[in-house]
UniProtKB/TrEMBL annotation:
The lineage of its organism: Bacteria, Bacillati, Actinomycetota, Actinomycetes, Kitasatosporales. Residues 23-32, 39-58, 333-352 have a biased composition (Basic and acidic residues). Residues 1-74, 107-151, 333-378 are annotated as: Disordered. This is Uncharacterized protein. Residues 107-129 have a biased composition (Low complexity). Keywords: Membrane, Transmembrane, Transmembrane helix. The chain crosses the membrane at residues 82-99. Residues 130-140 have a biased composition (Pro residues).
């Protein structure tokens, strides 16, 4: 309930003069502020220009009212719905991978789960190792996993494991000549040890094409060994070859590890020293699902002389020295092929007779093992 004003409250006529004058000024100010104002000349020009643009259709719809808040909400709603649709399968996939990481492409955590570095690739070898590679968990190689249980599992595949060093000028040999020598050496190694035709027992034409025909003694010996293999002329001293009637390769990967170095040659050229090990997984040609691995290490010195000073064929290599060490191949068999022993082999007359060696040990010299050694692992 409202109260009736008392008769003793002052009327407007009884207010002091200064209060009444302040009231009058404030009222006039408020009236002026709320009164309509005549637009300036510039404002009238802008308004007229916008009107004409609107008539010509040059302004977007809704330019007078600003953005539609409902449209923005609709777009946000679509984004939320999209995330709701994607969120469920993504969350399920994350949970599934957490339970079984091997489902990821390439099995990034290795065969034994997260943190296992067993299958992580090794960096390229740039210096002689100081010890043999560590032991691997004992696993039987299979057709699906031919390098299981082998240190070579971490080695590079094929030619990717032959990484020449950076070329630099040495003595009178220019940087380009050194680079040429390194590239030719790689071609020789690939043609002699990785070319599928060579591995199947065919003539290693790609490797022979790199050698200088003006070095006739070497080529004569190699041609004789390929044509009529014997203990004296054995093509395995330079080439890796398997008998296609006895074995066939498992997959198309040969594991490779090694290094190259170079130095000034004696014929105004450059000498390249190569030391590489190749691991070959094979199975029986008769279809029995057994897998064996043969390991071949090759050490070779080749020279690219200066053809302007010596009677040599430009772009061809002269072989100065070569040697090999073979692990897991029959002894005293000189038919020009490697003969790996399989788990079920019973040919006791072809047992290795030399000292025990680790074919993966690249820290020792190649002459330390002797001929036809007994391997500690394959």
């Amino acid at each position: 309930m409202s109260e009736k004003p008392s008769d003793d409250q002052p009327s407007a006529s009884e207010l002091p003069d200064d209060v009444w004058e302040q009231f009058t000024r404030d009222t006039e100010r408020d009236i002026r502020a709320s009164a309509p104002k005549e637009p300036s000349a510039r404002a009238r020009m802008v308004t007229e220009r916008l009107r004409r643009q609107e008539e010509r259709g040059e302004l977007p719809p809704g330019w007078r009212t600003g953005p539609d808040p409902l449209a923005a909400n609709r777009r946000a709603g679509r984004r939320r719905k999209l995330w709701a649709v994607l969120g469920v399968p993504v969350a399920a996939a994350v949970a599934l991978v957490a339970l079984k990481p091997s489902l990821l492409p390439g099995d990034p955590f290795g065969p034994d789960g997260p943190g296992d570095a067993a299958a992580s690739p090794l960096p390229a070898e740039t210096a002689a190792p100081t010890a043999p590679p560590g032991g691997s968990p004992p696993r039987t190689p299979t057709l699906d996993e031919p390098f299981a249980g082998s240190p070579a599992l971490r080695w590079a595949d094929g030619a990717a494991g032959i990484v020449p060093p950076e070329a630099k000028a040495v003595g009178p040999a220019s940087k380009d000549r050194v680079a040429q020598a390194l590239e030719l050496t790689k071609r020789l190694l690939v043609g002699a040890n990785l070319d599928p035709r060579t591995l199947r027992g065919a003539r290693p034409e790609a490797a022979l094409a790199v050698l200088d025909p003006r070095q006739p003694k070497l080529l004569d010996d190699l041609n004789t060994a390929l044509r009529s293999p014997s203990e004296r002329n054995d093509p395995l001293t330079m080439f890796s070859r398997f008998d296609p009637d006895e074995t066939r390769p498992v997959g198309d990967v040969v594991k490779t590890r090694g290094r190259m170095t170079f130095e000034q040659g004696s014929h105004a050229g450059v000498v390249v020293h190569a030391d590489y090990t190749f691991v070959y997984p094979v199975t029986r040609a008769d279809g029995r699902p057994e897998v064996a691995r043969t390991i071949v290490r090759r050490v070779i010195d080749v020279e690219l002389p200066d053809p302007t000073r010596y009677r040599v064929t430009p772009g061809r290599l002269s072989v100065k020295k070569y040697d090999e060490e073979i692990g897991n191949s029959a002894c005293d068999v000189h038919d020009g092929y490697l003969h790996p022993r399989f788990p079920s082999s019973d040919d006791r007359d072809r047992e290795p007779t030399g000292p025990t060696i680790d074919p993966y040990d690249r820290s020792r010299g190649i002459d330390d093992g002797g001929p036809c050694g007994t391997v500690t692992r394959t």
